[in-house]
Amino acid sequence: FRKLVEDMAGTDQLEALHEGEDFKKRFTWAIEQGTPFHKNIYNKIRGSKFIEIYHSFIAEHLKPLFSDDKVVYQAIPTFRVHYPENVGVEAWHKDRDYNHNPKEVNIFMPFTAAYGTNAVWYESEEGKQDFSPIEMDYGTVAFWDGVNLLHGNKLNTTGATRVSCDFRVMNISDYKEPEGDSVISGTKMTLGNYYEVM
Q1: Whole-number pLDDT of residue 25
Q2: 0.70 exceeded by the pTM?
Q3: What is the 3-state secondary structure (H, E, C) of 2-64?
């Protein structure tokens, strides 16, 4: 995955992405998906080798972990950049606050090491607010309950950019058409748009 992301982004130094991008604004909901990196990725992602491998990964490694014979998954993963002296996502939140199904399983896939203040921080139980980081290296994925657990980012003081993607998977029997659209992209959160069936 990392090589494909690097090719789309035009760099082989994801941890130093902040050095090549003239983007110093503090992230807000309005701009956190609008960096030069994001524009490069989202302009190239559809029909790419990345999407082909992404589908294979879900089919081979994730779908067998669910009980239904079909799963609903996020068609295009959400890419995240957590620059030094910035946050990856502006607000601490639960995904269900933004039209997500409470039965979704969040998958976190880093393309660089995620550690310390460049990681995603989350509570262990709903309402506990005992935040700890999801620390992991490239080549691993985390399954977690971001739809129901409060989570967010701290100011990144590591000096390294964290680049990752996250996406959602659920049993098809748990899917219910939501009332709203994706907060960030404005995509209708329906089958054939935000979600696909496998």
Answers
A1: 66
A2: yes
A3: HHHHHHHHCCCCHHHHHHHCCCCCCCCCCCCCCCHHHHHHHHHCCCCHHHHHHHHHHHHHHHH
